[in-house]
Design a protein that fits this description.
Number of helices: 4
Number of strands: 0
Radius of gyration: 24 Å
Oligomer: single chain
Number of domains: 2
Largest sheet: none
Helix content: 55-70%
Strand content: under 5%
Structural class: mainly alpha
Shape: elongated
Distance between the termini: 74 Å
């Protein structure tokens, strides 16, 4: 049997209540629920990081797309640099 270790987490009452309800819905203890969900999520995030995958929510996807298609707004310093590089000033 693999060696185990303890992990303590401090939660506010609302968060703990939510975890308790979710565990109850699955018919498992709070510890088992936290272990199942957090370890699975951690493994998923590690795999994504190893594969250089960035996960975005639908709202984040829209914001990213919009930022790629938006016209950039140059600062005055950037405009001055452009003029200097073109030999205009």
């Amino acid at each position: 049997m693999p060696k185990t270790s303890h992990l303590m987490v401090r939660l506010d009452e609302e968060s703990k209540s939510c975890l308790a309800k979710a565990a109850e819905l699955r018919g498992v203890s709070i510890s088992d629920y936290v272990r199942m969900v957090t370890v699975a999520q951690a493994r998923h995030e590690v795999r994504q990081a190893e594969q250089c995958i960035i996960g975005l929510t639908p709202d984040e996807q829209v914001a990213f797309w919009q930022s790629l298609h938006a016209s950039p707004r140059l600062t005055e310093s950037q405009r001055q640099l452009g003029r200097t590089m073109r030999g205009e000033g």
